[in-house]
Amino acid sequence: MSIPLRRRATTLGVLASAAALVAVGVSPATAGNGNGKPAPRTAEVTVMGTTDLHGNVFNWDYFRDAEYTDSAGNDVGLAKISTLVDQVRAEKGADSTLLVDAGDTIQGTSLAYYYAKVDPITEGSEHPMATAMNAIGYDAAALGNHEFNYGLDLLREFEDQVDFPLLAANAVDATTGEPAFEPYTIIPMRPEGHRGKPVRVGILGLTNPGSAIWDRANVEGKIEFPGLVEQAAYWVPRMKAAGADVVVVSAHSGTNGSSSYGDALPHVENASRQVAEQVPDIDAILVGHAHVEIPELRVTNQVTGEEVVLSEPLRWGMRLSTFDIGLTFERGRWDVDSVEAEVLNANTVEEDPEIVELLGDEHATVVDYVNSVVGESAEAMSAATARYEDTKALDLINHVQALEVREGLTGADAELPVLSIAAPFNRDAAIPAGPVSIRDVAGLYIFDNTLLGIRMTGAEVKAYLEKSAEYFRPVPGPGTYAPDDVTNAVTPTAPNGTPDYNYDVMYGLDAPLTYDIDLSRPVGDRVVDLEYGGEPLDPAQDFVIAINNYRQSGGGSFPGVTTAPVVYNRQLEIRQLLIDWVAAEGVVDPAVFSATNPDWRLTYAGEPLTFAP
């Protein structure tokens, strides 16, 4: 597959080649400044940035088999980003710009899944994200935590396929302690008409330390993830010593200082603000991971008193951040005078036809794949209400997970009752009555999580459900509520509201597990009438819990899971297990897995809550 040469990126290592020098806009020196000395030269470079692309090339929703849309009118995908990038290059001058990414690139859509699992790039295919990013002309990309989802072999193949460096200063070889990927790159940019020292723009990549727990099976004993602040403090002075005039950090890490896994690791997950505050000589930070939009955030460095400008473009290619960096050349060096940031909206432009044509065949292949029929359903099932009432859609997920774990148990564990947890990942997920496609099933489980089984006591099950019940806001009394007034509660570890994926429903395979969540009671004491098989749950009874790798490794800070004995771990993807089960059964009958409905409910002092549409 050919790539348009006009925008082919050039990979630059830590010591960039002088042959790669490109021009930036620079104002000519004036006759003087009144004292007989030449006026200083000034220049401006623009660094563009994306983040959390999550496998989105096209403005397309594979699960809906339709053009992407949401209530805010956003568009997604690199084809849209390409058009925005072309506009910025046309305005600023192509040689005055750089383009970087802040991670989570190769996971998240059916397109990305297909070339990781169905026709994997480790067996000769080219990753669509590599093809698109090379064509657009990226100069560097930081690694995100989802880069590690498919294992290091696939990540290394992706690294070989892109024409730019993958950066991760805080991903280090577990044996040698040396960087496992390039920590930074310095890109020289020569001001037009100035034959002296070029402007040297350094890009430092920082990734998310959570990969150590979320993808433990893929990285344990191979890669370790020190803290962002300490690694930035180590590498930025080395970048300056290597001649960087401008230092831009591309950080797959949010700004609010929180960690979704609590104290499971000593390093803060969302540490971009701390990096800006504590590490001198950083001019700008492209922020990722948090999936929020930050057009411009100015943070004062505590050491120098200088401002650092941060910007985060919205996920999936919805936005493009731009940093306009003004410089002055005096006394033989370039100094940064100003940094201004903003975000550009992808819904203001059309898709780049070159990108559409370049990957049209791959897109069509994946559309055909996800629309292939694997079974039939006796009735329709929707996850639209799964976050506030029991649904057959989540029961299906739990049933398949529990069956797989039970079949894989050995010894005394095989005699234990099996429970399962599942979260309402996708409010739009639905299984239709009649023919069921891969797309329908995959929509129930949009993450590439794998399945484990852990052993817990009844008391630990109760504590787990109490943690899950933190998802709900308190209410003043019984009655009818809008769902958003009850769900997504703010907590100390979720200052922006608890995400849907951190609310778990628990299900019993061998006998019903039933409970109420009483919102008249305080957090930590909300789960009442907890019964297994119609009897009060015995705190001392042992259970096996079917659980995903994200949760088992500490994601969401649920109690007891990281230390619980692991009794099943075949590294099987839950989404594929669902597809395989539907294909094997042929007919999906909710009566098989959802006979006791509801298993759980929201109440106030024993009175069930109801919800307005």
TrEMBL record:
Gene Ontology MF term list: 2',3'-cyclic-nucleotide 2'-phosphodiesterase activity; 3'-nucleotidase activity; metal ion binding; nucleotide binding
Keywords assigned: Hydrolase, Metal-binding, Multifunctional enzyme, Nucleotide-binding, Signal
5'-Nucleotidase C-terminal domain residues: 373-560
CDD domains registered for this protein in UniProt: MPP_CpdB_N
One biological process term in Gene Ontology: nucleotide catabolic process
Matches recorded under InterPro entries: 5'-Nucleotdase_C, 5'-Nucleotdase_C_sf, 5'-Nucleotdase_CS, 5_nucleotidase/apyrase, Calcineurin-like_PHP, CpdB_N, Metallo-depent_PP-like
Stored Pfam families: 5_nucleotid_C, Metallophos
PROSITE patterns cross-referenced by the UniProt entry: 5_NUCLEOTIDASE_2 (PS00786)
Cofactor(s) of this protein: a divalent metal cation
Signal sequence range: 1-31
Reactions performed catalytically: a ribonucleoside 3'-phosphate + H2O = a ribonucleoside + phosphate; a nucleoside 2',3'-cyclic phosphate + H2O = a nucleoside 3'-phosphate + H(+)
Cellular component GO terms held in the UniProt record: outer membrane-bounded periplasmic space
Subcellular localization(s) per the UniProt record: Cell envelope
Residues covered by the Calcineurin-like phosphoesterase domain: 46-292
Keyword Cell division: no
Family: Belongs to the 5'-nucleotidase family.
Protein name per Swiss-Prot or TrEMBL: Nucleotidase
